[in-house]
Structures are given as C-alpha cells and as structure tokens.
Amino acid sequence: MVEALKPNKRTQKPLWQRAGVCLRYVALILWCATTIFPFLWTINSSFKDNAQIFGQPLSLPSPVIWGNFQAAWNGTAIQVTGINSLIYAVTTMLLVLLIATPAAFYCAKMSKGKLLHTYFLIGIMIPVHAILIPCFITLRDLGLHNTRLGIILLYVSTGLSFSIFVLTGFIKTAIPNEMIEASVIDGCGPMRAFLNVMPLCQAGFATAMTFVFLGVWNEMLFAMIMLPSPTLRTLNVACYNLRGQFVSDQGLLSAGLVLLVVPVIIMYTLFQEQVVKGLTAGAVKG
Fold first, then answer.
1. How far apart are the first and last CA of the chain?
2. Which of these, 44, 135, 137, 255, could form a disulfide with 68 (CB 3.0-4.6 Å)?
3. Distance, CA of 89 to CA of 211 (rounded, Å)
4. Calpha distance 6→11 (Å, rounded)
5. Residue 198, Cβ neighbours under 10 Å: how many?
6. Would you list the DSSP string of 122-146?
7. How far is residue 70's CA from residue 129's CA, in Å, rounded to a whole number?
8. SS3 content of the chain, % helix, strand, coil (to 5)
9. How confident is the model at residue 273, as a pLDDT?
10. Could you tell me the residue ranges of all domains in the chain?
C-alpha cells in the first residue's frame, strides 16, 4: 500500500520540462496582464475627471463621476452613430457570408488547382492604406461617396479575402469528400450538394461573421474619409471626435471607448465557442 502511494519516477517529467511549462505559464500570465491592463485602466478612467486621471492614474475614482457616460452618450449621438455602425457591420457580415461561402466551397471541394484560392489570398496582403485613394476616386465617380451603399460595398470587398481564407480551411476539414461524392451519386448538382453540406459549417460561419463584424465595427479610416456627413457617421468616428483641439477630457474619451467596446464584447461572448472551433478546424488544412 505504501509503495502504491509513492510517486512513480517513470511518470514524472524531467526537471527541464517542468521548468519549461512554468516559464510558458509565466509568459502567458504576463501577456494577459499587459493585455487586460489598458482595458481595465480605461474603465477606471471613465469614472474620473482629468485631475484624478493625471494626478492619481492608478487609484480608484473618488468621487465617481457618472456624468462622463451621459456626456459621451450625448456627445457621440449614439442613437444615430451606434445604429449606423450596427447597420454597416450587420449588412457587411451578411453580404460577405453570402458571397464568401460558395467561393470557399468551390476552392475547397470543386477547384482542382490553387490558383483561384491564391488569387483571393492576395487581398489579405494588400494594406488598406494602399487602396484608400483608388477607392475614394472610384466611389466618387460612381456617385457612391458619402452613402451607406458605398461604404458597405467597400467593407464587403475588403472583408472577402480573409473570410474566404477561413471558410476554405474549415470546409476542407469539416466536410469529407465522401459527402460530396454521395450527393453527386444521388443526382445532386454542385449547388444542391453545396446546400446539403452547409449545415455542417456553422462554426466556420460564426468565425467568419465574428471577424467581419469586429473589423467593420472597429474600422475608422474609411469611415472618416468616405462618410463626411454627420448623419452617416459611425460610432468609432464619433468617439474620436470627442477629443478637444488643445485639451481633451480624458474621462469623457474613456467613457466613449467603453460604450464602443461593449457591443464587441457581447458579440465575441456569444460566438466564442464557435469561433474557437472554426479556427482550430481551419488550422488543420489552410
């Protein structure tokens, strides 16, 4: 009985392996701390005024200034800018999913070569700053500058490449070729076979939709240039405009950032499990 309670030396990891595991955990803890700290500091600062923020930046607010949120709510006109951001994000998400899903299915299951898939991946390599002026000129010539349709089409075009990349890798892994072959044997054409296997891609859909939503919601460069009208402005741009020309109310800015981040947290919390499944499945065959 005593011998059974003794640790088995064969099952114990060597000292250098245990030290490596400890170092990895320490690195992860430090990375999490440095990532979470700015967010917590912003929340804490949203209940302070400038005197507290600059005088005691790490202390708890005393007194708590709730008026920052009311001022940020009114200053950003969130009932207009928030709805604009939601319309752009949701519409772009649905259009990207509608276009990227059949394209990814064709690249994963129908295309024999990788030329088309490579063509779509080129879009990931192009920075948005490089296409800013051409996009502005194109939208202006088409009469779509400062319109909802113009900015949505721009967001759709910039979000397609990454969505196709994610969905292609997921479909290759999640959908076996035998299912496609069985559908063809049953007399289904390519479109019918595509529709039959789509229910298996829910995790991939959630992953692509989450990234597209977050990308549009957090985007500011295109929104500033393409939407000068205040009635079409996004919440991100409205929060940026809370700053002053010479002196800024940091508590007001922090409150605006908290209002901006809340929908992002809700979105990711709802689809977190599906996003992880989609990324891990697509990472096997990208």
1. 52
2. 255
3. 10
4. 12
5. 16
6. HHHHS-GGGGHHHHHHHHHHTT-TT
7. 35
8. 80, 0, 20
9. 73
10. 77-284
Instruction: Identify the CATH number of the domain defined by range 77-284.
Output: 1.10.3720.10
Residue 100 CA to residue 129 CA, distance in Å, equals 23
Q: Residues 32-41: pLDDT tens digits?
A: 888 888 888 9
| pTM of the predicted model as reported, rounded to 2 decimal places | 0.82
234: nearest Cα among 266, 267, 263, 254: 263
C-alpha to C-alpha distance for 125 and 165, rounded to whole angstroms: 12
Q: What is the DSSP letter of 165?
A: H
Structure tokens at 158: 């910039």
Mean pLDDT of the chain: 83
Q: Which amino acid is at 100?
A: A
Q: Which residue has the tokens 């649905």?
A: 94
Half-sphere exposure of 246 (CA within 13 A, CB side): 0
Query: Helix 78-105 and helix 190-197: axis angle, to 10°?
Result: 120
Q: Is 132 exposed, middle or buried (0-12, 13-18, 19+ CB in 10 A)?
A: middle
